[in-house]
Amino acid sequence: MCRHAFFQVPPQPRSVPDGRRFLLECLRAWDLDPILDDAQLALSELLANAVVHASSPITVAVSCAQSTLEVAVSDGSPLTPSPRPVRHDPAGDIERAAALIRSMSDPVDDRDPGLHVGPSGSVAGGRGLLLVEAITSDWGVSPHQGGKAVWFRMPAPPKWPPGSACPCAGGEGAMALASGGQVVHLPP
Q1: Residues 25-66: pLDDT tens digits?
Q2: Residue 161: how many CA atoms within 13 Å on its side-chain side?
Q3: Are 3 and 184 in contact (CB under 8 A)?
Q4: Whole-number pLDDT of residue 186
Q5: In whole angstroms, what is the distance from residue 106 CA to residue 133 CA?
Q6: pLDDT tens digit string along 139-173?
Q7: Count of CA atoms in the C-beta half-sphere (13 A) of 28
Q8: pLDDT above 80: residue 119
Q9: Is the per-residue pLDDT at 175 higher than 60?
Q10: Dihedral sign for Cα atoms in the order 71, 73, 74, 78
Q11: What is the DSSP secondary-structure string of the chain?
């Protein structure tokens, strides 16, 4: 059994909770409640990155085939995200950034390069992909014409799929996922 759904959102902060609701509806309808919390958290990180960095329409694709959930966030930016290194002295890094902020007269945006302390980058953010890496079984970036898709996979609960076997091995009607897998598009 296969499941697949798309959701398009604008590059606006409200798109993150809208995407979470869309994923909630899909996973509940597909009997995938046991992995819902981790999937929503990972999706939130990918959507937030797309909203902040892409400035283009965003598509969320959710698929479950062959006992694997795959969620992909596609946007129009060709820039590839990568996890930042782990901080080894977070307290020291925060103190250096705080001293820098105290020395500035203008308000500082948390993405200001002045807050980048050491090789780990900004003290205000940039750890979302480490979180995605920790809670999913696999993640990656697939470039495509006009942008990229950042995706993650998680195993479906042991009793999934309910019903018949998955026909996603290819054939007519099969579609490629961002990661290279295929799933049959089911009409709404």
Answers
A1: 999 999 999 999 999 999 999 999 999 888 899 999 999 887
A2: 16
A3: no
A4: 34
A5: 36
A6: 999 888 889 999 999 998 887 765 555 555 454 55
A7: 8
A8: no
A9: no
A10: negative
A11: --EEEEEEE-SSTTHHHHHHHHHHHHHHHTT-GGGHHHHHHHHHHHHHHHHHHT-S-EEEEEEEETTEEEEEEEES--PPP-PPPPPS-HHHHHHHHHHHHHH-SS---TT-GGGB-STT-BSSS--HHHHHHHHSSEEEEEEETTEEEEEEEEEPPTTPSPSSPP-TTSSTTEEE-TTS-EEEPPP-
| CA-based nearest residue to 30, from 127, 119, 161, 138 | 161
pTM for the full predicted model: 0.74
Tell me which amino acid residue 159 is: K
SS (H, E, C) 43-85: HHHHHHHHHHHCCCCEEEEEEEECCEEEEEEEECCCCCCCCCC
Residue of 41, 116, 112, 31 whose CA lies nearest to 71: 41
Measured CA to CA, the distance from residue 4 to residue 172 in angstroms comes to: 16
